[in-house]
Amino acid sequence: MRLRALLAITSLVVAVAACGDDGTSVFDLGVGDCFDDDPNSGDAVTEVPTVDCATPHDNEIYFEFSMTDAAFPRREATTQAAAERCIAEFQGFVGKSYPESDLDIFPITPTAESWEQGDRVVYCVLYALDLSKLTGSMRGANR
């Protein structure tokens, strides 16, 4: 079941760092932004290579929300909360339920370090389950 796989994987996390010239800072992303995978990124992502959604791309941000905890929750708790909220918002964006879709998701979540700087934003990101490129926005794609 994909839900178990999603919760078992290590999610991408946002790290506090200066943005370079190779991509868009994760702090500047928003719903509707599309980006490609960066094979050189590790577990902590500071920027992503954004692209126009009309061109083939790997990922699309379909929802974002802010966490309200006063103190940084453990990383596992952050990932769990993000996954639950991202799954709940999936059908409203795509038009098909998460279990029936050929798309999968992952969250980009704050780290303890970025939390200390005021970062509370979680991005819900979708991609093709078979890792093929997406073309166009998946809003209402019903797939």
Name the strands of the widest sheet in spatial order. 4-1-8-9-7-3-6
Number of domains: 1
Tally of helical segments: 3
Order of helices and strands: HEEEEEEEHEHE
> Can you count the beta strands?
9
**Roughly what fraction of the amino acids lie in strands?**
25-35%
The backbone outline, from C-alpha atoms, is globular
Q: pLDDT average, as an integer?
A: 83
Whole-number radius of gyration? Answer: 14 Å
Largest sheet: 7 strands, mixed
Keywords:
3 helices, 9 strands, 22% helix, globular, 143 residues
Protein described:
With 143 residues, the protein is α+β, with helices and mostly antiparallel strands. It has one domain. The protein has three helices and nine strands; from the N terminus they run H-E-E-E-E-E-E-E-H-E-H-E.
